[in-house]
Amino acid sequence: xxxxPFVHLLVGNLALKIPMAxxxxxxxxxxxxxxxxxxxxxxxxxxxxxxxxxxxxxxxxPDGQQPQTLAASFHLSKADLEKLDGKSFFSxxxxxxxxxxxxxxxTTCGVNSGRLLGRVSLPLELVGAExxxxxxxxxWISVGKDAKGSSSQLHxxxxxEPDPRFVFQFDGEPERSPQVFQIRGNIRQxxxxxxxxxxxxxxxxxxxxxSSQLESSSSRSWLSSLASERxxxxxxxxxxxxxxxxxxxxxxxxxxxxxxxxASPGSDRVSRSNPGAWLILxxxxxxxxxxxxxxxxxxxxxxxxxxxRFELMPDTNGSMSAAGIVLAESTLGTSKGGKFVIDTxxxxxxxxxxxxxPACSPRCSGDFGYGLWPYCMYRGFVMSxxxxxxxxxxxxxxxxxxxxxNCTEDAAAFVALAAxxxxxxxxxxxxxxxxxxxxxxxxxxxxx
Length: 448
Fold this sequence. Notes:
The chain is built from 5 helices and 24 strands. It has helices spanning 78-91, 203-212, 219-233, 408-427, 443-447; strands spanning 6-17, 36-42, 48-51, 70-77, 95-102, 107-108, 111-112, 115-123, 134-142, 153-162, 165-170, 179-184, 187-198, 236-237, 240-246, 251-259, 261-262, 276-284, 287-298, 306-312, 325-332, 338-343, 381-387, 397-401. Strand 15 and strand 16 (251-259) form a beta hairpin. Pfam families: DUF1005 (PF06219). InterPro entries: DUF1005.
């Protein structure tokens, strides 16, 4: 399998020096008490927000004690790089823009609560970045239009790294048992097939059906039981499973719904306190071994999004008692969708707004958060998968970093995870609404 070229643009090691006002003033900023944040924008990519730590003017940074932290990152495909290179002829080089604010983040009555301190612009030369790492800036830079006269300074590190990835695309919705193609430019090559199915859970109902036929007065009770079963099944979604096969037909990964998606009492939604869950399984030693666990629920409030949490399962010889390591926890919009992302380069930083980076992941030291922890084999960008909004035709596109794929089973596990995320959008659909026909067991299946 040949990967596609990608570039990972990283912005980190932020710090701000502001001279202390000699006399109290309305516009004075006291470095010890005023919080600061910045908005980071790169061309047409979504804006990211990060906290900027204030340090006394006399201090050196970094002093060897602080861990290096990441404030923002941007993922550029070959098409993105070509588009930026095409624009550079007319509008100059691609530019990273950082606006620094004092005060707390957020809005009050629709007005931003922060006060603009100044802006920083940094042109970037990205030609050849997909082949070799580049450092564009590492040190202090003056804040504001008048660089020579500005007394405030921002410390930052900006660099780009080659990040080749395998790109896969489902040829249809996961519940329709589609093929999965590897994409490289205009080349589409089939690599996997998916099989969606229901686990058989109708044995007890079969027994109920047979025993009811033995009693002449049982028709009413049987119909009552059937009505109760229909009502219960209408309040839960369970038994979904998708198996990924290689081209030889051998199963190489499974995503299995192990906890039903059930409406919380008095509600028509799956709650965060009682999420549904999938287990992602990989073959090993002649059996299936748990690799990861995905939980999903429906968020309340104005966002009304799909909340999720993915954790890596430790290899404990099949034991399910050991705690997993959370690699991703965020929210996807139910109307517009978004991207499910596992990117551990976000460790050690406050997660930007609307980011899919790990929000509750273990802290660690090292270069931009890369350090020694129990699962350091998953570091940097790991994978992403597109998710469409409710009611839309989904054909997930999955990107997996080359460094995390050593065999077919590695890639298949991420494909199975992407299918589980996509199906969770349907599983968390409000129970006042119906799910797709392919996701409903037929009446004869329910009756055995």
